[in-house]
Amino acid sequence: MGLLLLGACWAADAQDSLRVYHTLDSIRTLPNDTAKVSLLIRAGKQYSRYFDNHRLENLFWQEALPLAHKLRSAQGLALVYNELGTSKRNKSQYLVAEDYHEKAIKYAEEANDTLLMCLSFNNTGVDCRRQDKLQQAFDYHLHALQLAEKINDIRNICVATNSIGNIQLTAENYEDAIRHFDRALKLEEQSHNDLGVAINLGNLGYAYQGQNKLDLAIQYYHRSLVVNQKIGSPTGMAICYNALGAAYKEKKDYATAMEYLRKALVVNDKVDDKVHVAESYLNIGKLLSAQNKHEEARKHMQQSIELSMFWNFKSMLMEAYKALAADYKASGDFRRSLEAADKSLLYKDSILNEKSAMALQQMQTIYEVDRKDNQIKTLEHDKVIGELRRKRNVMFIFALAGFLLMAMIGGFFYIRHRNLEANKQTLQLELKSLRSQMNPHFIFNSLSSIHRYIWSNNQEEASDYLTKFSRLMRLILDNTQHTFVTLNKELESLRLYLDLESLRCNGIFEYNIRVGADINDEEVLIPPMILQPYVENAIWHGLVHKHNEKGLLEIDILLKDRSLVCTITDNGIGRQKAMEIKEKKGKGHNSVGMKVTEGRIDLIRKINNKEAKVTVTDLADTAGQPAGTMVTIILPAEFIF
């Protein structure tokens, strides 16, 4: 019987695979246009469960993405990035999901599609809420709500309103939460969306329970339960039973609380995700513990632990051992209480380690996605350039055949012009290559810093450091795609970098950034990542070795005679002492960042035929002792307009 069942499952899976790949092959034969992009996106949604079950990337969306880039279809790109982001969010890869959904916002705005903008802003808000970034989540959902109200899109109004209510609920702003849930409930009732009605009724119950209005909360839980029973949702029914159990527990009506928790346990057997069953056993155990029925409580807690161990529910194991520790403590068995508490902490540490590893992995994924997107754009650009070159050559041949004499004279000037252009293009490509080196150089240095920080600090601080680092990475990846960026964007990334380095060095230095009064930092342009290597050098070779007083790093940016003058001054130990320390430690490493940046500045001078240079001045005090270093970088002034 088992073999027959296994064979039937294998046959069904084989049929699914044939159906998926047959559909993909059929779509591939169609012309490359926006209709094909839409068809790939729809097919990807249709077969998403197949790819999730087999832990594969969705091949339909993987083909839709480069095609949308090739067609320069902003709408298609917004749609496919929304689907990719939601898929990653369902797998708890929230950083990657947020990155995809932010790309969806960018392309939805480029397409000027308000409905797509609403969807993208709401999706990004959900990603942020899952990461507990409540202010960012609120801003995204509020923006989505404002856009949805302009076009009277009820679906996105409901999503945004409910999400804002949940944010207020998390922040314990219960009155605001109730106001938003009430509005969402009325809209869902008008739309006859029973699932939305059930969710908002339950949320209102949570808000009133937060205000300690338990009877009112129980009324809303019962109303939500009725709707969930109507639509036949075991998960929704289990949530309501658990909520009712918790509310009656607060009222100290333990018998009624136990009745509802046992109902939740029965319903949870019909839910595929067994974590809900483990949660029900744990809730019953906590309730029995509150009644001092310790032996019976521990049996239920142990059932939760055994189920969680089988399915590897680490968060549930952490909570179950924590509850078991509290129960042993209440009964006076302090030795067993300590043992259970230790196990709870072990699972907590394991969860934190997994989160850190997952965050690093997701950052690498984001970097790879951005790199591939840039490769696609570069290939399309090269293709256009190739077409233009071929057309130019054809025109040149016809002109040569018709006007031989003029071609001979013109050929001389053309060859001369081509050589100059080729030389300039070579310099620009070298500059682009050097600029692209800054990304991996800076990322690898920063990842190394994070590694050391994680080992030398606790996981919570490391997580905060990693969040700031991810924000900096996004700025660096955005900025270094361009030859020039506005001064305010460059200084924003520089401040974030200095904050991270100050945090890692335990605040051993302070910094000041001053911009000339005659400079509009939104109009002045500067090559990206041009100052960071010199700032890094000042910190790690000058300021970290200073022990007698606090380090000070000053960055001044002035405009003089159409030149941008950037001065980086530190009160560190000076170059001579830094070299002595380096020699004592036996380090022979030369800074890649410094070499690349010097090469970039040299190429900027060659391309623009304007002054571009770096000078380093050793500072000394009145007694002639080293008092730091001053680096002056002079660049040609560039403006947006």
Strand order of the largest sheet: 2-4-5-7-6
| Mean pLDDT across every amino acid position | 82
CATH arch. level architecture of the domain at 440-639: 2-Layer Sandwich
Number of helices: 24
The CATH topology of the domain at 440-639:
Heat Shock Protein 90
| Separation of the first and last Cα atoms | 77 Å
Class per helix and strand makeup: alpha+beta
Q: Give the tally of β-strands.
A: 8
Helix content: over 70%
* Amount of beta strand: 5-15%
Uncertain segments: 1-6, 433-439
CATH level-4 homologous superfamily of the domain at 440-639 = Histidine kinase-like ATPase, C-terminal domain
Q: What's the Cα radius of gyration?
A: 31 Å
Task: Report on the architecture of this protein.
The protein is an alpha+beta fold. It has a domain at 440-639: Histidine kinase-like ATPase, C-terminal domain (Heat Shock Protein 90, 2-Layer Sandwich), CATH 3.30.565. The protein has 24 helices and eight strands. The protein is globular and about 100 Å long. The model is unreliable at 1-6 and 433-439 (pLDDT under 50). TPR repeats lie at residues 158-191, 198-231, 238-271.
Explain the layout of strands and helices.
Elements: H1 2-28, H2 34-46, H3 48-53, H4 59-71, H5 74-90, H6 94-111, H7 114-130, H8 134-151, H9 154-170, H10 174-190, H11 194-210, H12 214-231, H13 234-250, H14 254-268, H15 275-290, H16 294-311, H17 314-330, H18 334-402, H19 404-456, H20 459-479, E1 485-486, H21 487-504, E2 509-515, E3 524-526, H22 532-543, E4 551-560, E5 563-570, H23 575-585, H24 592-608, E6 613-620, E7 626-636, E8 638-639
Parallel strand pairs: 2-4
Antiparallel strand pairs: 1-3, 3-8, 4-5, 5-7, 6-7
Helix pairs in contact: 1-2, 2-4, 2-5, 4-5, 5-6, 5-7, 6-7, 6-18, 7-8, 7-9, 8-9, 9-10, 9-11, 10-11, 11-12, 11-13, 12-13, 13-14, 13-15, 14-15, 15-16, 15-17, 16-17, 17-18, 18-19, 18-20, 19-20, 19-24, 20-21
Protein name: Tetratricopeptide repeat-containing protein
TPR repeats: 158-191, 198-231, 238-271
GO molecular function: phosphorelay sensor kinase activity
